[in-house]
Amino acid sequence: MNETLERWSSRRAFILAVTGAAVGLGNIWRFPYMTGENGGAAFLLLYVVFVVLLGLPVMIAEILIGRAGRRSPMRSLGHLARQAGASPHWRWLGLFGVITVFFILSFYSVVSGWSIEYLVESVNGDFAGMAPQAVGANFNAFLADPLRMTFNHTLFMLLTMSVVAAGISGGLEKLNNLLMPLLYLLLIVLAGYATTTDGFGTAMAWLFTPDLAALSVSVMLNAMGHAFFTLAVGACALMAYGAYMPDDQSLPRAVGAVAVLDVAVALLSGIAIFSVVFSQGLDPGEGPGLMFVTLPIAFAELPGGSLWLGVFFLLLLLATWTSSINLAEPMVATLQGWGLKRGRAAACVGVAVWAVGLLSVFSFSSMAEVHWLGDMNFFDLVTTVPTDLFLPIGGLLIAIFAAWVMPRDTAELALGTGPAGFRSWQRLVRFVSIPLVVGVLVSGIW
Ligand code: PHE
Ligand code: NA
């Protein structure tokens, strides 16, 4: 009946896996540059509001479906739909999730490759004594070198798919749990150092004094997409993990702490990065390179900077590794559901995602001006449309399924809070989350 990976051995294992999926590039790389591109505090405020009103309730909905279905996402959805007497077509939502994670993983691997490059360069001492302007030039030189980028992207895909193929991500999650506190500590140290820089005051004002006039539909769309992305919600990836959740655990309690941690990591990273931006007179709207040009500058000011920069990128790599394993899971689980062996399924997924990832690699050199939609090159396209459109649409359908379609007693049992908790969650999803996603999506597409 349950054709995929091992079952989580304990409640802690489940929480570790969800934390591993959530904390990643979204917090440390994507959050700061999206905040920078969307004008600062207004984006941050919306993002937090969306995490609370959408991200968290829909995250619960998604895991709940997996937990009640105990199969791959497609099969869980089909099975529960049948049980509810609803259309079996609900299972296509699982395939929509597969498409979403496919494109997300294709760029996620490329950017994680940038971390590998920076890990090596830091350990080499390349950044020691490098002038701030030179750090930016160094990053651009790397982007212009598709061969080096392909090498790192390949390495990262191999790392990810070998763990997925072996179905041993549990070990990695335990390692992560052991080492992530050090990443958080480094971020706290960086944020502490940031308070001593000239740019700190400006950064704080810029991050925390929302100018409501800066709120626009596109800022709303971006903030909503990011709230889903950072919590790993909307692509049936957590649904695949929910299938292995033990029976005797309250779902909201398990994931509430993950969301708090996820936001905290993003905020620390934002404070550290924007203090450097304003101290050095850099452009907050610099884009996807923001982290890679600010952090070497920040670490250079600390004693033993090169070493700690290396440690930082190593830990970031671990964090992205567990996220990419989660991104791969719905694809591999679906292929397994179609009868492929796990190893073979992982190989197919790995090769296909790797190949599409090359389009992102070349988006920084020969294909920079190849526009796929509007003025977006491939990298621009895959870093926005799957996140800002597919995740919210997937999340919306997940929410509708869990709060309106699923048989109430099945859903209540899978939530694990008892009837009163279930009623509050269901009301929140029905009357707040669903209308909110619809409202933002409709005004966005308008
Ligand atoms: N949440 C991950 C991050 O913040 C990215 C992710 C998105 C993982 C969707 C799984 C599914 O980096
Ligand atoms: Na995240």
Automatic annotation (TrEMBL):
Membrane topology label: Multi-pass membrane protein
PROSITE patterns the record matches: NA_NEUROTRAN_SYMP_1, NA_NEUROTRAN_SYMP_3
Record NCBIfam families: Na_transp
SUPFAM superfamilies with a match to the protein in the record: SNF-like
Residue ranges the record marks as coiled coil: none
Membrane-spanning ranges: 12-29, 41-65, 92-111, 155-172, 184-208, 220-242, 254-278, 290-318, 345-369, 389-407, 428-445
Taxonomic source organism: Modicisalibacter zincidurans
Keyword tRNA processing: no
Keyword Transmembrane helix among record annotations: yes
Compartments, as annotated in UniProt: Membrane
Name of the protein in its database record: Transporter
Domain of life according to the entry: Bacteria
Keywords: Membrane, Symport, Transmembrane, Transmembrane helix, Transport
Family from the record: Belongs to the sodium:neurotransmitter symporter (SNF) (TC 2.A.22) family.
